[in-house]
Structures are given as C-alpha cells and as structure tokens.
Amino acid sequence: MDYEAVIGLETHVQLKTKSKMWCGCANVFGAPPNTNVCPVCLGLPGVLPVPNDEALRLTVLTGFLLNCEIPRFAKFDRKSYFYPDMPKNYQITQYDKPSTANGHVEFEFNGGLARVRITRAHLEEDVGKNTHFERNSGVDFNRAGVPLLEIVSEPDIASADMAYEYLNALKDILIYGGISDCDMEKRECAAQGREGTRRENRNQEHEQLFWRAPRAGIRNPAPNRSGEEGRQADPIHTPLGRRSRHHR
Ligand SMILES: [Zn+2]
Questions:
Q1: Backbone angles phi, psi at 129, to 5 degrees
Q2: Pairing state between β 189-199 and 147-153
Q3: Taken in order 23, 24, 27, 30, is the CA torsion positive or negative?
Q4: CB 3.0–4.6 Å: which of 101, 107, 147, 150 could bond 55 by disulfide?
Q5: How close is the Cα of 43 to the center of ligand 1, in Å?
Q6: What is the pLDDT of residues 140-196, one digit of tens each?
Q7: Domain ranges of the chain
Q8: What is the pTM of this model?
Q9: Ligand 1 centre and the CA of 89: distance in Å?
Q10: Ligand 1: distance of its center to the CA of 125 in Å?
C-alpha cells in the first residue's frame, strides 16, 4: 500500500516592534542580559499588562497578506505552564478567538501554483533564554514578552521540498510587509511540523482514517546541521528560507 506524507507547519515569527507585547521594554537583539526587563515582563505581582497596538496592527496586516478573515472580536488567554525561562509561569496568547483565521498562501512549486491553507495567525509572547555554563546556568529575560506570531498551516504540504518553498514564500510575504526580518540567526523565526501519512488515491473515508494515525511534533532542528542537510534528513526540520549553520 502506498502512502503520502501530509505535513502542517507552525511557524513562529517575532514581530518588528520597538517595544515588547505587554510593556514598554525595548524589543532589540543583542543587549546585555536582563537589561530590557521590567516588573511586567518579569511577571512580578501587581502589574498591569498593556497591549502593544503596533503588534496588533502587524498581526491584522499579516492576516490580510495571508488572505485571512479578520474577525471583529479577538481575545487573549493565559496558557499556564512552568519553564525556567518563563518568569510568569504562564504565557498570554490568543487561543480560541485569534485575530486572523482561514487564509492561504500560494507559491510556485513543481512548475505550477501550489496553495497551502492557513488555519490562523495568532499573537502570543516569546520566552527568555537559558544559557548553560560548565558549573551553573543563567537566564536572560530580555526576550521574554517580545510579540510572537504563530502562523499555523493546514496539513496541505506533501514533501520537504514543498515545505521549503512554502516557508520561502511566507518569509518573502513577512519581510515585504515589514512584519518581521525573519532572521534565524537572531531567533526571529522558527518552524515546527505536524506530520502524518495517508493512502494515495484515497477517498474521503481513507483520508480521515489515516490522518488521525501517526502524528508527531518536533521542535528544533538539530544544532550544527545545515539547513540543506536538515531538510533531507527530516521533512519537518525545514529552516525558514535560509541555509544557516546556526538556525534555532
Ligand atoms: Zn518589560
């Protein structure tokens, strides 16, 4: 029996704003550790987060560029989990009422025009960064609270090559729109996949059956592996449009 891959990608993109999502701290790369922090992004008690209207504008603009619907109402929720680089122990994220939904991206592929449907592009916030030294570990919260857009695709991607072209098209759109620089060296973008299989020459019934079966999520590409090698080794380890040795 022949099977074909079905891949959906979740792409995280840092928005090009001057300040963070819920406070006035600078959104810049490369500052000395813990110099762009305040009680809000450190999650101290008694603070009042205020949304960054430029981040909201860029999210809606992304929705238009990805042919999405823009609902008149969107909201944020708290997603609670513990991780050392997340000082609040929860992330403020759009969940069931995102700012954008039901779009698509079209791009040239295999001599024709391919289309990948976009489930949603929702706004959330980034976490800090752990660094592990020989005898101890450090946490830099400069990145905690930076606005992060998660662009979720439907499982319309059939191969690693198609994923690569989809991510290239997405990157071009986001750079053109002034939404993000998509610089992987600065961890401004990353993609992770959900992968499954379905039977070729399927009918609707089979598609339902097999899409529910083997499905996996993988986070980061292996370090020190070039994008090209990663793409060949695993279809969902596709870097966002660049062949970098340090993509994370
Ligand atoms: Zn802050």
A1: -135, 125
A2: unpaired
A3: negative
A4: 147
A5: 9
A6: 999 999 999 999 999 999 998 999 999 999 999 999 999 999 988 787 888 888 777
A7: 3-233
A8: 0.80
A9: 15
A10: 12
